[in-house]
């Protein structure tokens, strides 16, 4: 019995997004589509433990969901006579749709999936709602799984999903792929959602919370699926490349006692070569599609510089500095500038880094950002300006929220005075 | 979690007989499904064992190279996939969908990943890790000075 349920879970994981995508297109309502799919899942949970899992479980679920859909719509049309016409139309659509998920309909399925992707990430929804809906409808995660991953109460996430589905219905958001003129803007929102999920998991791996780290896998999977749905969109490959390469370092970025290990200190033997290869391939695809200067492709290219270097010393810092330069022009941000300063100092010496850093001194967004004085302190120390360096490191220690980091900064400051004394 | 799915060799694969066009088409369709589902990390077919070799390690550091082919074809594999899935059951579900004929027996094995080592990463191993890392840091510092 328990086995059957686990098998059904697995089938659900494999089939649910396609199922919901197909139903959503038929009934024109994501919420109703998911309800129907859930009904079919319940039916499977009732029947499969006795009858066994059918040979084509996807088709079974689709047939069952479709039948329930017709029943639901019949009831609705009885209740709401004026919607009769619409009801029959949908009913006719449902009747026509012959589910055969394994053969011949691949293009349709891809199209339906893509419609669902864009609907889940529609701008009428808040970012949080997009994330929850995407994970639930496309990632096949349950509400408790999403709640656990985002450290939110289950009721909050459940509410968020219910409200998101209602918002989509009330705004009469059509379940479709955006037109060419708005495609790129809408795609950016899809990519943002996927990367947000990835980062949520990535930052969690600094702790020992591997449940949350699963989000990296979920995001990667969504990204890889999207790359097959939109094979000609370079930024999709750029994002996949970025995630694959970042994920390749997951097991190297945490030390034995759970402490974070910085990129240049990581044991490169622990980097995941398979993911690096996949990441470099995806980056090459993005570049061959003419997308070398997309924001994700650029970040992936920077990550690739590190991935290609066999040792930290082999890092091509000049190239990284140039890539940050391009990124700063494309998506200017103080944090990018800070990274550019680090790259410049590695490529051309601390004075070059310091020069750029000093132009950032008055930037509001960086006020209170501990990395600014931390990096500045590092440059000054390398230049032998010890007193100034110590002051900056102390300031950084004051600003950081992280106790461990504070210790390290203070220790660095102290070691400076020791070595000079 | 990751699984390696191993496809056993048979007389034909060992004889270097290539799959028929239909088998190839079916396999390509299956692979496409895996890619579209975002679970396929890698998948390769292997040359017959006549092209391979075994290296046996013996007492005294002696190594013996044994050239293929190897006769016990039941223990040989002809190809493998690496899949990224959420559960063992999901891997099994996918494996059940692979286009193989009667008589074939696929084998699934979970691949170790960092969190799997949790308990097994003993203090001694952790110390070893630490030491390795210190060494590599020293090396990189030496490299930086050079």
Which key features would you list for this structure?
heterodimer; A: 421 residues; mainly alpha; elongated; B: 146 residues; alpha+beta; Alpha-Beta Plaits; 2 domains; two-stranded antiparallel sheet; 4 helices
Q: Which regions of chain B contain 5 or more consecutive residues with pLDDT less than 50?
A: 139-146
Tally of discrete structural domains of chain B: 2
What summary fits the major beta sheet of chain B? 4 strands, antiparallel
Question: On the 0-100 scale, what is the average pLDDT of chain B?
Answer: 83
CATH topology of the largest domain in chain B: Alpha-Beta Plaits
Structure in words:
The complex is a heterodimer of chains A (421) and B (146). Chain A is mostly helical. Among the domains of chain A are: 210-309, no CATH class; 368-421, no CATH class. Helices cover 73% and strands 0% of the residues of chain A. Chain A is built from 19 helices and no strands. Chain A has helices at 2-27, 30-51, 57-79, 84-96, 106-120, 127-138, 143-149, 154-170, 180-204, 210-229, 234-247, 273-288, 295-308, 317-330, 334-348, 350-358, 371-382, 386-399, 403-420. Chain B has 146 residues and is α+β, with helices and mostly antiparallel strands. Chain B has four helices and six strands; from the N terminus they run βααββββαβα. Chain B has two domains: 2-111, Alpha-Beta Plaits, CATH 3.30.70.1060; 119-146. In chain B, 36% of the residues lie in helices and 26% in strands. Chain A binds chain B through residues 6-7, 9-11, 13-14, 106, 110, 140, 210, 213-214, 217, 220-225, 228-229, 250-251, 254-257, 261, 264-265, 267-268, 274-275, 278, 311-313, and chain B through 32, 35-39, 41-42, 82, 84, 86-87, 89-90, 92-94, 113-115, 121, 126-127, 129-130, 132-133, 136-137, 139-140, 143-144.
